[in-house]
Amino acid sequence: MKRRIREQFRLRQQELAGLDIVVLIRGPLPAGKENWTPQLARLFDKLLAKRRQD
């Protein structure tokens, strides 16, 4: 999971400049880790959209 988070961060590093991001995961991860990449991308999209509003 850490690797996927780092990959997504690196893909958007220029857009996320100046932000401190902490990712917390509670409990065990469900099976099907391949589904996490699109979910992480959506979370970063939401974070960037919120940043643009401010």
From TrEMBL:
<keyword id="KW-0378">Hydrolase</keyword>
<dbReference type="InterPro" id="IPR014721">
    <property type="entry name" value="Ribsml_uS5_D2-typ_fold_subgr"/>
</dbReference>
<keyword id="KW-0694">RNA-binding</keyword>
<keyword id="KW-0540">Nuclease</keyword>
<dbReference type="GO" id="GO:0004526">
    <property type="term" value="F:ribonuclease P activity"/>
</dbReference>
<dbReference type="InterPro" id="IPR000100">
    <property type="entry name" value="RNase_P"/>
</dbReference>
<dbReference type="InterPro" id="IPR020568">
    <property type="entry name" value="Ribosomal_Su5_D2-typ_SF"/>
</dbReference>
<keyword id="KW-0255">Endonuclease</keyword>
<keyword id="KW-0819">tRNA processing</keyword>
<dbReference type="GO" id="GO:0008033">
    <property type="term" value="P:tRNA processing"/>
</dbReference>
<dbReference type="Pfam" id="PF00825">
    <property type="entry name" value="Ribonuclease_P"/>
</dbReference>
<dbReference type="GO" id="GO:0000049">
    <property type="term" value="F:tRNA binding"/>
</dbReference>
<protein>
    <submittedName>
        <fullName>Ribonuclease P protein component</fullName>
    </submittedName>
</protein>
